[in-house]
Amino acid sequence: MAKQGRINGKEKIRIGVVGCGGRGWYDSDRSLKSDPNVEIYAMADLFQDKLDHTLKGLKNQYGDRINVAKNRQFVGFDAYKQLLECDLDLVILTTPPSFRPEHLRAAVEAGKHVFMEKPVAVDPVGVRSVIESSELADKKGLTIMAGTQARQMSHRVELMKRIHDGQIGDIVTGQCFRVGGAMRGWGVEERKADWSDMEWQIRRWLFNTWLSGDFICEMHIHELDIVNWAMGGPPVKCMAMGGREARTDELYGNIFDHFSVEYEYENGVRIFYAGSQIDGATVRTNERIVGTKGIAYTDWARSYIEGENPFKYDGPNPDPCISQHNLQFQAMRNGEKLNQGVRVAHSTLTAIMGRMSAYTGKELSWKWVLNASKLDLSPDKYEFGDMPKPEIAVPGETPLV
User: Which interval of the chain is the signal sequence (predicted)?
Assistant: First the structure.
């Protein structure tokens, strides 16, 4: 439980939620569960139906802790700007990730603490913006917590301590898997007659690269973040393959259904990632780090080491999605530094770099992607209307930008 100090002269921490879909509801719920002196004070979404649904559900569960008056409910592309004018302490950012860089910058400039879901961008231009905003947050004394909850899992925290203490020796290689599950039942599946191209793509955002970053970025950032955690930082280059074999219907936008990436790190260690979203495939999600003295294994439920220094975690595993909010509230109340912005930006770029390599068929260096790539997937303007159907990448033909 967080220490009950005062924030900006108030006992309660006031939260504004930007993005009222499933993750907006979930992160609001977990923040309320983590601390009794927290209230949801304002909400914003692009769509009225999303805001209404989440507001009603939270209010039914939490009553007057959902203190969102009608004049603090905002809808539209500029809804986040209106929300940031409210008397808030912290903003939860849970829109599709393409909007994250712009929303983070605005929140930090407005002097708000930020909890932001992963990934935090869909292209290198967005990643650079997030890094700049994170550096500005440090200057302003603001906290930033990222929704990479695996970093708060007790069994993984204990395993990483042992990896970094050298208990598996020098790392020589590793594997990272997340395969299975096509997400076929996700979201609305029929386009209404009055929906523009823009609205239809946003309501199916998971399957459009300009909005989600493709599934390697939107979902598998968790696994790549764990690998970066074990390795002590991001890779120096990568070479990838991928494609679209099972999920071919245009209902599934332009994202791939499988990727395979070789990531090389500073010391020449190569980590192999394989990921897919294909129905009927064996479901598997885990990471395996091989060292000169042993092998470290971890998944969402367990961690262990085999070798000279065997280890098996058998302690408690509290909900990491509650722990991450509690950690941020403690830092806010105690005036402690907590800023995960650059770290999650690097893990996001690790995924983006893999996608870019697979889309183009090119080997890529971290330095070039981080510093020189001009890839910006943002549309020319944000408004409901006509919009071209996103193109499906063809390795060897899709240009590297």
Answer: none
